[in-house]
Amino acid sequence: MKERRKLLEVNDLQTTFFTDSGEIPAVDHVDFYVREGEVLGIVGESGCGKSVTSLSIMQLIPSPPGKITGGEILFEGQDLLKKTEKEMREIRGNDVAMIFQEPMTSLNPLFTIGNQMSEAISLHQKKWSKKQIKERAIEMLKLVGLPRSEEIMKEYPHQLSGGMRQRVMIAMALVCDPKVLIADEPTTALDVTIQAQILKLMRELNERMNTAILLITHDLGVVAETCERVVVMYAGQVIEEAATEVIFKNPCHPYTRGLIQSVPDMRNKKDRLYSIQGNVPKPGSIEKGCRFAARCESAFSRCWTETPELYRNSDNHQTRCFLYDEREGVISANEQTIAKS
Amino acid sequence: MNKPLLRVEGLKKYFPIRKGLIGKTVGHVKAIDDVSFHVNEGETLGIVGESGCGKSTTGRTIMQLLEPTEGVVEFQGKDLTKLSANEIRAVRRDMQMVFQDPYASLNPRHTIGKILEEPLIVHGGGNAKERREKVVEFLKIVGLSEYHAKRYPHQFSGGQRQRIGIARALMTNPKLIIADEPVSALDVSIQAQVLNLMQDLQKEFNLTYIFIAHDLGVVRHISDRVAVMYLGKIVEITESEELYANPLHPYTQALLSAVPVPDPNYKKEQIIIEGDMPSPANPPSGCAFHTRCPFKMDVCTKVIPVLAEEKIGHSVACHLYTSESNDDIERKKQLEGSV
Questions:
Q1: In chain A, what is the straight-line distance between the N-terminal and C-terminal CA atoms, in Å?
Q2: Is residue A1 over pLDDT 60?
Q3: In chain A, is it the N or the C terminus that has fewer CB atoms within a 10 Å radius of its CB?
Q4: What is the Cα–Cα distance from B91 to B65, expressed in whole angstroms?
Q5: Which tens digits make up the pLDDT trace of B276-317?
């Protein structure tokens, strides 16, 4: 495959929430990138920092208490963190657009769909006439597969179903042909049959318009069906990164492995589900050692005293686990993998 | 083992739609419409469906938390719909409920000890000392510790709260537990813990579960038999192995194919059904699924299909399996070919 340009690059991002009970590092030195036309998945459980990461890219972190305290977010080589609010507004929607989990709350209940679509367009296409704007809005609604789009323009959000609202959100996000679409749990609030429709739509848009998608989700099934590459997050850190096929075939980090095994499989019934013991630690509660050590079955002495880095176990596969540190010896890591399975 | 513990016959629950100043009833939302099934002792019946299909209402109506409009709910030989409020309270000792939201179903002002003791007070479970001992015993059974009894709900994580919800349901030694989406608010790793706990408890106390959920993977994992609901009706009910291997109803097929499988190499034929579920206030004529069904026939728009046994222990409500004109047989072949 031809090497594609990195479109969005997040380097060493740190986002901290300053609360009365202390500083909470929600995103802690996170690195990843999205290439042109790629679908990248960020997967993790609640509290792992995946949503804060996406909001940081858009600089929509509520401040105070939140603040991006370090790192850089490069979009086409330019650091978004150095932009002024006015410049950022140009980038949001035009270059990077975002859709959210809850389509009910992201649409204004007091305005018609047409109104809200037109607003989004006119903000970015200031020279367009009303007629042009309306035509574009209808065109976009048709593109996302909404039937009777002309009538929908006159309707209010409450008149639409959850799936239709999410389609409207996608249409709105795509009006200016963004290069990257950030989708934060876009199908979590939807039923499976509707979820299948929306995921299909997103895959089609990705292929047809070559929009890169950063898909944030907790659902490993959604990742397997939609993404090319996956970043797994745990307690504010990236703990594993690889192509989707590699992650599911050969998950390396004990957390990723546990996560994949704890999903009930529809195809064959297991007598008992594998479960990771314990709970996700509170962000900032672990100062020393690996953040997963307390729940990890393969933890050894070094996990409690040193903090692991991301180790490269093959060209496109990184894992934040001492088992894959060359100093520990890759062979011993493999042995442990085999012994465990 | 195969004795029905609960039998539901022709259960209906209509909610009136009121309009205007005097609240005149202008129509009904048929949340559940003529639902019949049974649950055997010691088994788990899964009820699965999308939001608005009436699965939660079914659970609540069985518990008599909602008064059924029509129908029979027979539990241990007694028709619950005919009992007085006092008699129902006595029956609830044997049937308990676990709710979806572990955040909202525990009183934030009560300690865990008090929350767990409450069912024993209501149902007369011994003196204060015995009750406290039982609270500690059950805390340990669900994997918590004695000192947790003095804490308040906000001090627990979601998974722990759901454990408390389960412990509360177990306090009166019930026979039947109706669990309404007990794991849908939890993360996968915690979900696995709670599902394992529920399976262990079932063995230990010989419990019967009605497990209501929208996640087909979870339902398959825990259920012996599964009922699929669509718009207030059961469209298919059978053994869980059979349902997942050989779904008959087009809705079940679409539902199963829509679930994302966590395996990128798994190629499946995806049936994506268009459109949304119609409103239960104004259901389509005939088969409720005909507006989205890829195998729609003329008869589907006119006649409501009845749930009938197609194979032994496998019932489906679909005209594809009842009317047998040549045309239909052709379609049926097509359908079987696509599975």
A1: 33
A2: no
A3: N
A4: 12
A5: 788 888 888 889 999 999 888 889 998 899 998 888 889 999
Minimal C-alpha gap between A315 and chain B (Å): 20
Integer Cα distance of B183 and B271 in angstroms = 27
Contact B338, B325 (CB under 8 A): no
**Contact residues on chain A for B254, CB-CB shorter than 8 A:** 193
What's the one-letter identity of residue A284?
G
List pLDDT tens digits, range A213-269.
999 999 999 999 999 999 999 988 999 999 999 999 999 999 999 999 888 877 777
Task: Find the closest chain B residue to A228 by CA distance.
Answer: B264
Q: Is A275 on the interface with B (CB under 8 A)?
A: yes
B278 contacts in A (CB within 8 Å)? Answer: none
ipTM rounded to 2 decimals: 0.80
Find, in chain A, the residue whose alpha carbon is nearest to that of B255.
A193
**CB contact at 8 A, A197 and A6:** no
Distance CA A144, CA A201 (A): 7
The minimum CA-CA distance between B216 and chain A, rounded to whole Å, is 7
For B256, residues 6+ apart whose C-beta sits below 8 A from its C-beta are A266, B216, B244, B247
- Could you tell me if A218 and A45 are in contact, meaning their C-beta atoms sit under 8 angstroms apart? yes
How many other C-beta atoms are found inside a 10 Å radius of the C-beta of residue A102?
A: 15
Mutate to test the interface with B, among A191, A219, A257 (most CBs of B within 10 A): A191
Angle at CA B135, nearest 5°, toward B221 and A281? 60
Structure tokens at A180: 């990257």
User: Is A40 strand, coil or helix?
Assistant: strand
